[in-house]
From TrEMBL:
<feature type="region of interest" description="Disordered">
    <location>
        <begin position="1"/>
        <end position="22"/>
    </location>
</feature>
<dbReference type="InterPro" id="IPR000060">
    <property type="entry name" value="BCCT_transptr"/>
</dbReference>
<keyword id="KW-1133">Transmembrane helix</keyword>
<feature type="compositionally biased region" description="Basic and acidic residues">
    <location>
        <begin position="1"/>
        <end position="10"/>
    </location>
</feature>
<feature type="transmembrane region" description="Helical">
    <location>
        <begin position="373"/>
        <end position="392"/>
    </location>
</feature>
<protein>
    <submittedName>
        <fullName>BCCT transporter</fullName>
    </submittedName>
</protein>
<feature type="transmembrane region" description="Helical">
    <location>
        <begin position="404"/>
        <end position="428"/>
    </location>
</feature>
<feature type="transmembrane region" description="Helical">
    <location>
        <begin position="501"/>
        <end position="520"/>
    </location>
</feature>
<feature type="transmembrane region" description="Helical">
    <location>
        <begin position="94"/>
        <end position="113"/>
    </location>
</feature>
<keyword id="KW-0813">Transport</keyword>
<comment type="similarity">
    <text>Belongs to the BCCT transporter (TC 2.A.15) family.</text>
</comment>
<dbReference type="GO" id="GO:0022857">
    <property type="term" value="F:transmembrane transporter activity"/>
</dbReference>
<feature type="transmembrane region" description="Helical">
    <location>
        <begin position="288"/>
        <end position="309"/>
    </location>
</feature>
<feature type="transmembrane region" description="Helical">
    <location>
        <begin position="321"/>
        <end position="353"/>
    </location>
</feature>
<feature type="transmembrane region" description="Helical">
    <location>
        <begin position="526"/>
        <end position="546"/>
    </location>
</feature>
<feature type="transmembrane region" description="Helical">
    <location>
        <begin position="207"/>
        <end position="226"/>
    </location>
</feature>
<keyword id="KW-0472">Membrane</keyword>
Length: 556
């Protein structure tokens, strides 16, 4: 039985749930008899400890294993199916993804300026666990991933090239892939629209999606005392029914979305690492290399799982952050430094000018861009949102909603703008200033290494790029295993390690199955397919956030 959400009189916190600290100071705890793990199966088989939610774990794992087996066994048959499904969903549902993402951004920005922004995560007297510097670094770490490595050069360069090419029509329908109205033959205009389109995909909208999920998880776990799972967000709507099948289905959807979102990133990372190894060392860039990479890196991820979060993920993340900053600083220093610095502000301005047109869900003339690029991206971010949202929620206890949203929206977005400006801007400069066409003509997964090849210390920087992709791969797999294991263990955050090992293996198996069963299109189809129903879940969560915040005491 929940407290009346319209009653703003705060209740004193009681003991916290297992693994979840109790609120500090006044907070409106939800009064429920449910105990975390009460529906779990706890046993020991063959010397392996198990503690898992029977229904969520069994349904999720069996369906996913069935998918992997069918995809691997019927590769030739499933590839055309992936192509058909992807074309149908992006062609018919892109407006839905664009509209939903706009709602998430508007909600996040709106809450900053309302009195609800004064609510403090973790209770009215909660104190932040991390300094601003440490907190910002972790937010940046959450946003840095294989995607920035894969698309940092290729996306700005691609949009610039298509914009320069102008629009093309066939039977009155545009057939080009340029964003908005393109900028045929206008070099400066093509750079502006190309960078604006890139920043659109890596700026406020993805972080608005993450902010909504992270805020919802943090609010209902740290302020309301519920388990750290997606089903808890729906208590204001479903009440005690979240502990039954409605809640099971929400958590199963979260597992699917997270797994396929991670598998897409791992597949992209494997293709880029394989291309980089071929570029540097002449290793064949084919499916065998990519499968061996996924298998090898999954083994490293398993070692990280066994080592634990503190010794495994934390150390690898720290190594990755240092390498990423060094590579970024190197490109800024030896690349077109002044163009990068001035471009940062110019690109931000272009983004703000084009933002309304880029985010318009209806009446788009640039259908290939909005459907093939934006719709895929929004589904990808939505698939990642349980994973990234849970991480952000865990490190943001003690922050007010206002400072939480300002930081989550702005800090990672600005870092992404700088990264895209440095890497993409350098590649564009090589094309337009130096006349170097190699980076433009290279395959997407190879463009980063070709760009670095025109700068000093090529072998070192390219090798660092490969290491970054691989370590992002490992940390994503390990952290993703932790999140999925928490969901399938009924909200427990300290479930036995063998369960995390199982999910790390499954992530690698899905990435291999999708790569062999249809390559990039299969990966994109998996994200779009799971992202569609999960978008509905997040739209309902928006209402739950407002309902939950209205019942909370506010910081003065």
């Amino acid at each position: 039985m929940a407290n009346d959400p319209n009653d703003n009189k705060p209740s004193e916190p009681t003991a916290g749930s297992e693994g979840i600290p109790a609120p500090e100071g006044p907070a409106n705890l939800i009064d429920t008899d449910y105990v975390i793990g009460q529906d779990n199966i706890t046993t020991t088989k063959f010397g392996i400890d198990l503690d898992l939610h029977g229904k969520v774990f069994s349904i999720s794992s069996l369906l996913i294993l069935f998918f992997v087996i069918i995809t691997l066994a019927l590769q030739d048959q499933v590839e055309p199916i992936f192509n058909t499904v992807f074309s149908f969903l992006t062609g018919n549902m892109s407006w839905f993804f664009l509209l939903a993402a706009n709602i998430f951004v508007v909600l996040a920005i709106g809450l900053i300026f309302t009195p609800l922004g004064k609510v403090r995560i973790g209770g009215a007297h909660a104190k932040p666990e991390f300094s601003y510097l440490g907190w910002f670094a972790m937010l940046f770490a959450a946003g840095m991933g294989i995607g920035l490595m894969f698309y940092g050069v290729s996306e700005p360069l691609t949009h610039f090239g298509t914009a320069m090419g102008g629009t093309a029509t066939e039977n009155g329908v545009r057939t080009d892939w340029a964003p908005l109205g393109a900028a045929a033959g206008d070099q400066a205009g093509a750079i502006d629209v190309g960078m604006a389109a890139t920043i659109f995909h890596w700026g406020l909208h993805p972080w608005g999606i993450y902010a909504v999920v992270a805020l919802a998880l943090a609010l209902f776990s740290f302020n309301k005392g519920l388990p750290l799972t997606m089903r808890s967000i729906f208590y204001p709507i479903l009440g005690e029914r979240i502990w039954g099948w409605p809640g099971h289905l929400i958590d199963i959807l979260a597992v699917f979305a997270t797994l396929f979102g991670l598998a897409t990133s791992l597949g992209l990372g494997a293709s880029q690492a394989s291309a980089g190894l071929g570029y540097l060392f002449g290793i064949p860039d084919n499916n065998v290399t990519m499968v061996l990479l996924i298998m090898g890196i999954t083994v490293v991820a398993l070692m990280s799982v066994v080592a634990g979060v503190d010794k495994g993920v934390q150390r690898l993340s720290q190594i990755n952050m240092v390498l990423a900053f060094l590579l970024l600083a190197f490109v800024i220093a030896v690349g077109p430094t002044l163009a990068i610095i001035s471009g940062f502000f110019t690109n931000l301005g272009a983004y703000m000018v084009d933002l309304p047109a880029l985010s318009m869900p209806f009446g788009r003339e640039d259908a290939n861009f909005s459907q093939g690029w934006t719709a895929f991206y929004w589904a990808w971010w939505i698939s990642w949102s349980p994973f990234v949202g849970m991480f952000i929620a865990r490190v943001s206890r003690g922050r007010t909603v206002r400072e939480f949203l300002i930081a989550v929206l702005l800090v990672p977005s600005l870092v992404s703008v700088l990264w895209m400006t440095a890497f993409g801007g350098t590649a564009i400069d090589q094309v337009v200033t130096d006349g170097f066409q190699g980076v433009k003509e290279a395959a997407l997964e190879l463009q980063l290494f070709v760009m670095l090849g025109q700068l000093p210390l090529t072998s070192i920087t390219s090798f660092v790029g490969i290491v970054l992709v691989i370590v992002f791969f490992v940390t994503s797999s390990d952290s993703g295993s932790l999140v999925i294991d928490s969901i399938t263990a009924g909200g427990k955050v300290d479930a036995p390690k063998p369960q995390r090992i199982f999910w790390a293996l499954i992530e690698g198996a899905i990435a291999i199955a999708l790569l062999l069963g249809g390559g990039l299109t299969a990966l994109q189809t998996a994200v779009i397919t799971t992202g569609l129903p999960f978008t509905l879940v997040l739209l309902v969560a928006c209402y739950a956030i407002i309902k939950g915040l209205m019942s909370e005491p506010r910081a003065k």
